[in-house]
């Protein structure tokens, strides 16, 4: 299809604009989480009272293939998703679902009680509960006069 | 194309009569692969449960609609968002090669798996020819 039609040669920019709009509109966004430049898996973080709640959509992952680690204020999620057993690539008519191993580390916005972390995985959605560490009480530090002795 | 058993029908903005309309409805990613008995369709539907999944075959159109119920505490405050929540809707045109009566499906950890068995090949029938 011709992008520029001679009949409207005096207004090619409007044509170009319309064509670019049309191209952009046809880009499929069905690959949620696989858009370029995005980390996998996409996560949402909520604040619930004195807890953080992190959710991630990981359909088809087995709970035993999921790993949630926390150390020094960094939460690491690891996992993998394998394709159907015994099905080689040439049996696929269509393949849109991502598969393979992934790992993602997130720096937590607040201090959390790392030993009280809990995670559950239901219906393909991972939910990690991160209880916040109680705010530390400011500690007074005695300043001594170095010249007093 | 005659060898295409499942055709992807284009999204219909207003054509889903009877389906509840929600502001956010996603097209879930799918895989389709062949097995000796037919085709298997897998769709990612995270957050969808057996109770909130509707799967139907009407005429030659297979439609899946998965509703996602946000199970969040009422006082949850979103502080970081990378994905949006919404329902899932996608439909497919089944060819005559698929035995519509024997379509089965299962849902496991947010993945819907639909089995689309091939219609059994009809046996050649011998026709007796007689003379009058």
Shape of chain B: rod-shaped
Using the coordinates above, name the CATH class of chain B: Mainly Beta
Total helices of chain A: the number is 1
Strand content of chain B: 35-45%
Helix count of chain B? 0
Major sheet details of chain B: 5 strands, mixed
Give the C-alpha Rg of chain A: 26 Å
Largest sheet of chain A: 4 strands, antiparallel
Helix-strand topology string of chain A:
HEEEEEEEE
Mean pLDDT of chain A: 82
Spatial extent as radius of gyration of chain B: 20 Å
Oligomer category: heterodimer
Strand content of chain A: 25-35%
**Structural classification of chain B:** mainly beta
The residue fraction in helices of chain A comes out at: 10-25%
How many E-type strands of chain B? 10
Side by side, the strands of the main sheet of chain A go 1-2-8-7
Enumerate the spans of chain A where pLDDT stays under 50 for 5 or more consecutive residues. Answer: none
Distance between the termini of chain B: 44 Å
How many separate structural domains of chain B?
1
How does the SSE layout of this entry go?
The complex is a heterodimer of chains A (149) and B (132).
Chain A: H1 12-26, E1 43-48, E2 51-57, E3 67-71, E4 74-81, E5 92-95, E6 100-107, E7 118-122, E8 125-131
Antiparallel strand pairs in A: 1-2, 2-8, 3-4, 4-6, 7-8
Chain B: E1 6-8, E2 25-26, E3 30-35, E4 38-44, E5 53-58, E6 61-66, E7 77-81, E8 87-94, E9 104-108, E10 111-117
Parallel strand pairs in B: 2-8
Antiparallel strand pairs in B: 1-8, 3-4, 4-10, 5-6, 6-8, 9-10
